[in-house]
Here is the input.
Amino acid sequence: MKIGKQLVPGLSGIALLFSSLVLMIKGYKVIGLRSIDLPSNWISLHPGMKPSSVETIFIKRKEDTISFAKKLLEGKKVYSALKDIIQDILISPIAIGYYLIGRFVFAKSFIASKDCTRCDLCVKKCPVNAIKIVDNRCFWTHKCESCMQCMNICPQRSIETVHGFIFGISYLVYAVFLVWLYKLLSIENLANLYFAEGISNSFLFIFDSVVFLFLLFLGYRIMHFLLRFRLFERLFVLTSLTTYKFWRRYKPSKKYMKITTEEKHATSQPQ
Ligand code: SF4
Ligand code: SF4
Here is the structure.
């Protein structure tokens, strides 16, 4: 991230540790561990960064990557990522939470607007094959990990996160449906009757979450059906923050993704 003129270090979480573990299990020797923080692309949560900020981060990280590669090629061992290990382990619940929320909540907020030309680029490029075509329209399945690549690469900028749908469903489930259901079935009394106090609260939390996820899935199906009608399509699109111009898409700086001949030479010639 870049806040003002400051580059704020990102958090690699346990991703780096997991990938090293996988490599070690496969018999590789891990001689270097270093996080390279790239611009955040979580555009369901925040607007894409300004192109100038993306470029600044790319320039800096390209230098870091080349210097890291040079050290490894010189035979040095570099484990600079290990200094963040405590912080990485501490934030691991966020990573697990994001894994679940990304898969079961954000994935059910993606739609393709009327601007979609069915080029199917998003379908072909999704790393986990999470987008299906249902009724001639893109449909995001639970395989989706909310990496947001599809939204960022769509040439028509037609993929939206329908924030209005998520807020609307959350309100209906928690403030209306569950209140009614609790009264109707005296769920709280039942939970207190069958479980000890701490366990009954956990049971109620799990119960609420299951009801929410079920109704969200149902709501997503209904939204997908309604998208064929222009009025509903507009309603959903206009309640998506991602549709507005100020909510930019993330564009990687292609210029800095390439490595020049001089840089290639420098990293392949250890001194
Ligand atoms: S990449 Fe965009 S235009 Fe192409 S199929 Fe996907 S949503 Fe539609
Ligand atoms: S967000 Fe990522 S995982 Fe989900 S459908 Fe798009 S490209 Fe696939």
Notes: The chain has two domains: 2-98+253-268, 110-243. Residues 110-243 form a domain with the Alpha-Beta Plaits fold (CATH 3.30.70.20). Residues 197-226 form the longest helix (30 residues). The chain has a mean pLDDT of 88.
